[in-house]
Structure formats: C-alpha cells, structure tokens
Amino acid sequence: MENSFLSADETGKKSDFISACRNEQHSRVPVWFMRQAGRSLPEYKKIRGTGSILEAASDPERAAEITLQPVERYGVDAAILFSDIMVPVHSIGFGIEIQPGIGPVVENPFESTEDLKRLRKLEPEIDVPYVGETIKILSQECPVPVIGFAGAPFTVASYLIEGKPSRSLEKTKALMEQESEIWDSLMNQLSDITISSLNHQIESGASAIQLFDSWAGLIEPEIYEQKVFPYSKRVLSSINNSRVPKIHFGVGTQPILHLIAAAGADVVGIDSNTPIDTARAKLGNEIAIQGNLDPEICLQPIEIVEKAVSEILTLNNNNFGHIFNLGHGVLPDTDPGVLSHVVEMVHSHKLPERKDG
Ligand code: 1CP
Questions:
Q1: Model confidence over 249-281: pLDDT tens digits?
Q2: pLDDT band, residue 38 (cuts 50/70/90)
Q3: Does the residue 357 lie in any domain?
Q4: How many domains does the chain divide into?
Q5: With contact defined as beta carbons under 8 Å apart, do 276 and 284 qualify?
Q6: What is the pLDDT of residue 48?
Q7: Residue in 85, 97, 270 to alter for ligand 1 test, most ligand atoms within 8 A of Cβ
C-alpha cells in the first residue's frame, strides 16, 4: 500500500511532520510524544484489557484504537503504532513476556552459540500479520502520519541477554567484548529481523519509521562504533522506500551523535541532556532533529513546563528541521492535560517563511 503522507509537493496532502523530517518549509512546528499511546490515558486503561500488552497489540482493531487515542486527545502531528520493540522476537518464539510494571522478561536468556538456534528469519505475513493489519486500518482512519518502529539490534539484544530490564548491561557488555563471533551472529540475525519488520510496516502503510536504540548511550563510544553502529547502519540502509523518513533515537547519545546520524538517519532523536543547539553544532543544519523536553518536567507546575517548552523553541531558532518531542517516553503519572497544553504551545509558535526559498 502506498503511504499517503508524502510531502506537500508530492500529493497535495500536507503534513508538517513529514515536511519537518525532510527539513522542508512548513508553518507550524510538528509535535508528537514517544510512548504517547497506552500509558496514562484513562481511555487506554478502559480498552486495554487485563492480558499482556502483547495480547492487546496483536488485536488489530484494539491496537488501532489505542494508536488513535493520543491523536484525538492531544492533537499531535503523528501517531506511533501501539506495539513493542520485543514483538518480532516474541513472535518467533524466543520466550518473552512483558510484565506489567517491569517490562520485557525472557524466560531463558541468551547465553551461548546454542541460543542462536532459537532465532530465525521473521516472516511478517505469518509471524506478525496483525502488525500489518493494524497499520492498514490506521491508513484509512488516522488523520496524521503513522510512525512504524523497531528496536535497534543492540537494544533488543540487551533484553535477550540480560533477561530483564537492566541499566548496567553487564552481561551484554561481556558478551560483545569477549565473544565476538557470537555477538556478530546475534547482531546479524537481529538486524535481519529488524529489516523485515520495518519493511513490512512500510509496505502496510507506515509513513515514517523510528529505530529505537534506547540504551546505545550506555556503552563506550569506541565500542558503540565497532560493535553496534555497523548493524544499525545496515538496518537503516536496508529500508526499501527511500521516501519514508527514518528517525534514529537513543538516550545519552551526545558523544556518539555523529554516528547516530551517520547510520543513515533523516532525523536524529535527542534526549533532554543534549540541547538542540549543541546537537546542531555537531550535526550541521541539514539533518532534522527530534526532541527534547524532559519528561520529568511534565510532572512540574505548568509555568515550569511552559518555560521549558519556550526554551526549546528558542534554541531551535526557527529551523524547519525540528519535530518537537520529549527526550524520552511519557512517564505513566503524566497529567494528559499537561501534554495537551504542550501541543497547543508548540502549535501556536509560527515559523517564518524560508528566506533562501
Ligand atoms: O506510544 C507508545 O506507547 C507506543 C507503543 C510502544 C513503544 C514505541 C510500547 C508499548 N513500547 C514501545 C517501545 C519500547 N519498548 C522501547 C523503546 C522506547 C523507550 O526507550 O521507552 C523499549 C526500551 C521497550 C521495552 C519496554 N516495554 C519497556 C522498558 C523496560 C526498561 O528497560 O525500562 C517497558 C516497560 C515495556 C512495556 C510496554 N511497552 C508498551 C507499553 C504501553 C508498555 C507498558 C506495559 C503495559 O501497558 O502492559
């Protein structure tokens, strides 16, 4: 299926989000929030059901409705598919559960060569047909572009190896440094799975994709460059449709920002510790930037939120290549009213006409 949100010049169907991804002229700063779906919204809790998020995500009608909820509530400029980065590896039977309040838990974590046999190629139409079906429903019903996504091979590998959420990533670091061959095979297999998953989402109608390498900033820059970067680069360069913008995001990536861009991103997602002007000084003005309001600030009094939003808009200096977002995902205790207010504030900031045409 053709995705319908190409740039204004291509279809006449205008999207500020797609224009900003391409650093093209538009009048209003686009905004969406990572983890905007399925978090604190009362309407989500109502239809979420009691099973695992993996069950809710595998029901296309319900997953499409959850994806649309933040679009309707906040008026954001993009929707992100309701799914999870662990869906592809779960679907091929690696033995993953997503436990409420914890996150992905692996019954038998990845340890040795033997475990490579538990991975295989992803056949999206057979393994995750519901992802395609959800996006097809959204192509009809969603008024704004739908962002498909995947976890980058490194971040997914870290969950498979650690077995549960971890911020020290000790086992992952040990494997990548001491078992080079196993690491390469694991990363190659995960890259293939990620590529199939993203291309399937694009073929089903996703208008942009985001590669989440959430924990890329937890390893040393030199190690990132040798052991992680080549695989993310392969993933991003294997996207079949060159017109679909590619967003590449991680937390704590300031020291490796040039590599996050060089992996093949059209948009670099930055966290809240990397001021936009610092990111631009490193990356230049051609590449678009997404971010970066601190999600913790959204728990503060509204005046503090307003000040932080204005500061980001000021630092952006009316650059067209900016998509307003948080520096990481929406925190579960966030008042939805605060996010609606952020959207109003961002939208009320008008961009001037581009002088260079
Ligand atoms: O807006 C959305 O919520 C869209 C759907 C979405 C996305 C984009 C979910 C649903 N998960 C994700 C991506 C995801 N999942 C990432 C990348 C983004 C990020 O860095 O936050 C990561 C690291 C995960 C793994 C994961 N799944 C965690 C984090 C664990 C950790 O290490 O801290 C958690 C808590 C989950 C469960 C999950 N995924 C999604 C939801 C709504 C939930 C909560 C559980 C539930 O409601 O049952």
A1: 999 999 999 999 999 999 999 999 999 999 999
A2: confident
A3: no
A4: 1
A5: no
A6: 83
A7: 85
